Amino acid sequence: xxxxxxxxxxxxxxxxQLPSSKSISNRLLLxxxxxxxxxxxxxxxxxxxxxxxxxxxNSNSTTFDVGAAGTSxxxxxxxxxxxxxxxxxxxxxxxxERPIKTLVDALNQLGAxxxxxxxxxxxxxxxxxxxxxxxxxxxxxxxxxQYISALLMIAPTIENGxxxxxxxxxxxLPYLEMTLALMKDxxxxxxxxxxxxxxxxxxxxxxxxxxESDWSAASYWYEIAALNPELSINLKGLKKISLQGDSNIKxxxxxxxxxxxxxxKGTFLxxxxxxxxxxxxxxxxxxxLAQTLAVTCCLMDKPFHFTGLQTLKIxxxxxxxxxxxxxKKMGYKLSTNDVDDLSWNGExxxxxxxxxxxxxxxxxxxMAMAFAPAVIKFPxxxxxxxxxxxxxxxxxxxxxxxxxxxxxxxxxxx
Length: 414
Ligand SMILES: O=C(O)C1=C[C@@H](OP(=O)(O)O)[C@@H](O)[C@H](O)C1
Ligand SMILES: C=C(OP(=O)(O)O)C(=O)O
Hints:
This protein is α/β, with parallel strands linked by helices. 29% of the residues lie in helices and 25% in strands. It has 2 domains: 216 residues, UDP-n-acetylglucosamine1-carboxyvinyl-transferase, Chain (Alpha-beta prism), CATH 3.65.10; 178 residues, UDP-n-acetylglucosamine1-carboxyvinyl-transferase, Chain, CATH 3.65.10. The strands form 5 sheets. It has a 4-stranded mixed β-sheet with strand order 18-19-1-20. A 4-stranded mixed β-sheet has the order 2-11-13-12. Strands 3-4-6-5 form a 4-stranded mixed β-sheet, covered by helices on one side. The protein is globular, with a radius of gyration of 21 Å. The chain starts with a strand and ends with a strand. The site of shikimate-3-phosphate has 12 residues, from helix 5. It is found in: Cytoplasm.
């Protein structure tokens, strides 16, 4: 199925209730389980990724499918390793291409027995859960922080706790801080110095927890604000002092002319214009924002140079390649060193406004959400497989209709 998009200019104030953060929701679900909490989580995400986590935790089966949810796959691998029994954990076809060896090796060193059912180093996994024994572990900090978050969350519940030494650069660091802060809320203190994180053995205390609204989802609203100067957008539910590193979106978009004002009534975005000629940023701490910024910069005619993108190749799709391919359809010629950067020097081809442009989404929610606002410049825009957005932001299409972004459903053969 495809959506044919259209944009009708809307001026003035709009108000959007943002979705809950799936990163926080999935951590809270695991911490709830580890603390045997009787409490319900408030503002829990209704995303596919959180439904996947909830489905496994509430299941009576021994075989679980988490679909495309990276956090669920990684967090549950650690969790099931310490639950006595034999479990099978699998996911979508893309999940079977996303590496998990670093985490499996670490858990096996702690006494778990995890086997690969298909390809060495990748899901699906057969997990023989047992009482794990903690101690010291060394593991790379530069592949996915989700492996480290998974180990940290189970650490207090295993004998002797854990002392993790991270080698290489630490990527996605704010997600580790989020994990440790939520563990602290549940009564477990940790210690982090340089590249060593220590979590003592201890007990989680159940508590009533509330998930924050999602700053990554807010990024698409910053993009809309940057492209629609006549709009004033009130985003409801965001926290100014947030556990989410993606709250840095406000600083990034300040450079692109979007001003953020916090008040008790919400987070207000307004477009005050920019004199910036170019945008340069290292995304090592906020990898999920790269697609929003790449599309925005092109549409605003701001050449850019992004670094710190080394993890983008192993996410829902190879996001660097996906961005290059799809922006090329609009005439923007991007380049990469094929390792960790992406840039656009302003070079573009004129594209006929008669011909439809079909944006492939590669089963990646962020491709659909970052590209849809582009209809404002490319009126013949179609988004393929538009419902991928349910991975993190199920109400995306209804919400953006408030800003004048309408869609019409087209059936395709597949
Ligand atoms: O821990 C988390 O909730 C996440 C960590 C990041 O992944 P990596 O650590 O693999 O970069 C991020 O991209 C993902 O969307 C969510
Ligand atoms: C990378 C993402 O998710 P995950 O790794 O949890 O599948 C994302 O939501 O952009």
